[in-house]
Amino acid sequence: MSKKTLRSRLKHSPQDEGHVQVTPEQILQLVQERDIRFIRLWFVDILGQLKAFAITSRELEGALKDGMGFDGSSIEGFARIYESDLVAKPIPETFQVLPWRPKEAGVARMFCDILTPEGKPFPGDPRYILKQLLAQAAKMGFTYYTGPELEYFYFKSPQVLEGLDEGGYFDSVLSDESHDLRRQTILYLEQMGIPVEYSHHEVAASQHEIDLRYADALIMADRVITHKVVVKQVAHAAGVYASFMPKPIAGINGSGMHVHQSLFKEGQNAFFSAKDPCYLSDLARHFIAGILKHAREICLVTNQWVNSYKRLVPGYEAPVYICWGRRNRSALVRIPEYKPGRSAATRIEVRFPDPACNPYLAFAVLLAAGLAGVRGKYPLPDPVEADVYEMSELERHAKLVETLPGSLIEALEVAEGSSIVREVLGEPLFTKLLLNKRIEWDAYRTHVSDYELKRYLPIL
């Protein structure tokens, strides 16, 4: 690969970025040419929180060869004290220059594989967990693509939940500060090789959405982490704050991360069938059935915070009821309309995850649930095209429509008995996640809120 081709690929990454080999020597050459002095090594903890440490360019050759050791005992969901030594080994294909940093003595980032001192994959690394699921899909002949829609809010500051605009869905205001922030974010993402499909104002005031063009799920999980970093960085540089909190303000819509998904086999979309009224293959129907059947179990991973369940309530466009439909935006799984001649675009849209999840683990459990449906040939129930929110409880019961967990503790208790979540995460990480979420729930339920004081103190 020539230097020119390498620079072009790293700047304008194609859909299959990550499957094209980039050698350490090519990265070292690019670092020298671009005057990169610092490289930030990125990975995430069990909760999807970005962790990083920086090395200088002179340490990069050794890092690419042997990795860099670090103490994993303080990383949530990682190693215990007595087995705390871990190694972060940068992945050449993920090298990108951070465009908001100075060009002289520049800064780049690389995602890392987390290894044991013996050089084996660390089983608590969320990225490794997703890689294992994708390997299972590959053995079945499938490539798993995802395309998430990440919603978020702009606020004056973390302490002042005052928005920057009063816009609504798809509104465009030329003097809108939020519009300029979105524009700069997209420019940075494109410079980092992350194609953006489109962006727009969301339903709530100061709520926005930037959608990434679909890609292999591992690449996309890296891009989701980068997307959130860039959104927050651009906001910080402008003196404001961006939040991916699922429900920051009571009484208005929360922020979701709808995930478009498809399986490809031998270059063809395995979800498409021209013979089906919904243009869905039998495989796609089994996949959807798997998502629906296991939605309650995997909710702890796709919606992992106490606050996540403040979003998952009727009346604010977030899905609550476990059903599927074509044009029904109250359904848990929606089938975007097929356009003739675009069979490759046939996909399902899973609407319940939120942008505060760990994307590696979320994509992993969504894939596992779908593949369970494929392997077991789960039957798909009839679609629900009526507004589920307007149905009576009796009507929903007649259609066998269940609901998602209504709280973190309910999601935790359902996940605790899930063989799928246990198998995907592995026993150590599964146990750690349950412990972490139980601690979070206990802290929440023992807290006396302003709501309780205002409502009950005057009368009790």
Describe the structure.
By secondary structure, the protein is of the alpha+beta class. It is 36% helix and 20% strand. The longest helix has 21 residues, at 217-237. The N and C termini lie far apart (74 Å). Residues 1-18 have low confidence and may be disordered.
List keywords for this structure.
alpha+beta; Ubiquitin-like (UB roll); six-stranded mixed beta sheet; 18 strands; 14 helices; disordered N terminus; ten-stranded mixed beta sheet; 460 residues; Creatine Kinase, Chain A, domain 2; 2 domains
Indicate the topology.
Blueprint: H1 3-11, H2 24-33, E1 36-44, E2 50-56, H3 60-66, E3 68-71, E4 85-90, E5 96-97, E6 106-115, H4 126-139, E7 143-155, H5 177-191, E8 196-201, E9 207-212, E10 215-216, H6 217-237, E11 241-243, E12 257-265, E13 268-269, H7 282-302, H8 308-311, E14 321-322, E15 324-325, E16 333-334, E17 348-350, H9 359-376, H10 393-398, E18 402-403, H11 408-416, H12 419-425, H13 427-445, H14 450-456
Parallel strand pairs: 1-6, 15-16
Antiparallel strand pairs: 1-2, 3-4, 4-6, 5-6, 7-9, 7-10, 7-11, 7-12, 8-9, 12-13, 12-17, 14-18, 16-17
CATH architecture of the largest domain: 2-Layer Sandwich
User: CATH homologous superfamily name of the largest domain?
Assistant: Glutamine synthetase/guanido kinase, catalytic domain
Percent helix among the residues?
25-40%
CATH class of the largest domain: Alpha Beta
CATH topology name of the largest domain, in short, is: Creatine Kinase, Chain A, domain 2
Mean pLDDT, rounded to whole units? 87
Strand content: 15-25%
* Total beta strand runs: 18
